[in-house]
Amino acid sequence: MSELHSIPLTCKEGVYSVFDFYQDADGEDAIFFDYDTQYQMLTYDIPVGQDWRGMTLYSVPEKDIFRTLRACYGEDGELLKITAVLNGHETLLYIRYEDEEDARKKIRRFAIRNANAIIEQIQQCKDVVARLFVDFYIDSETIDYHAMIGAVAQMEAVRQKYHDEDSCDCSGNYPSEYIEGDNEMLITMVRCAEGHPSANFQYAVEIMSKHIEKYALPALRRTEDFKFICEEYD
């Protein structure tokens, strides 16, 4: 397999594949990739303001990253974004923001789109719902944001098992599957923006959670004691 060469931060306007960069760029003005074939792990550093921030992607098929990686440059020659189609899903590896306002605007736009994808899945539920959970988490390399539905029968099973009403408000006691949007894109969006990633993530969480509460709940058949519970887990 050919070497995965670095992507320069400036280039002539256009869209380029990994094979268009036949050698590593000179100097530090480039994004350098390290691909671990054994673990299918891709690591690289991205420019964020005056600093650089580490990124790690897991379960990256070797053929996908070499065949589908694309770097997009704008009229000014600046690198706008890097994408790849991994496991059949377009994945954002890097995005350049003009400034803090641009970052917040694009994160907000994505957060609403991501919330709508989750809402669409929630609205497919035909059961009577007692709980709707939104759980989220962030660490140095991972972001998770998902919803879970607690149907009436499930909540009753939890109540019988634990004999504790508080247990009904814990999503971990329910067997429901996670309802997710695009967590991979979410982590790239918040880590490419200036400021601490956790603060950027909390900004997105607030937007998504309020949007889900506003638009998902009216479509559900809910119990009188229904609760919408949004919590961070560790």
Characterise the protein shown here.
The chain is α+β, with helices and mostly antiparallel strands. 30% of the residues lie in helices and 34% in strands. The chain has 5 helices and 13 strands. The protein has helices spanning 62-68, 100-122, 152-162, 183-191, 197-216, and strands spanning 7-8, 14-17, 30-31, 33-36, 41-48, 51-57, 70-73, 79-86, 89-95, 128-138, 143-151, 179-180, 221-232. The strands form 4 sheets. It has a 4-stranded antiparallel sheet. Strands 12-11-10-13 form a 4-stranded mixed sheet. Helix 2 (100-122) runs parallel beside helix 5 and helix 4 packs across helix 5. The mean pLDDT is 94.
Q: Count of DSSP E strands?
A: 13
Rg calculated over all Cα atoms:
21 Å
Share of residues in helices: 25-40%
Order of strands across the main sheet: 2-7-8-9
Largest sheet: 4 strands, antiparallel
Average pLDDT: 94
**SSE run:** EEEEEEHEEEHEEHEHHE
First-last Cα distance:
39 Å
Structural class: alpha+beta
Shape: elongated
Contiguous uncertain segments of 5+ residues: none
Number of helices in the DSSP assignment: 5
Strand percentage: 25-35%
Compose a concise summary of this entry.
This protein is an alpha+beta fold. The chain has helices at residues 62-68, 100-122, 152-162, 183-191, 197-216, and strands at 7-8, 14-17, 30-31, 33-36, 41-48, 51-57, 70-73, 79-86, 89-95, 128-138, 143-151, 179-180, 221-232.
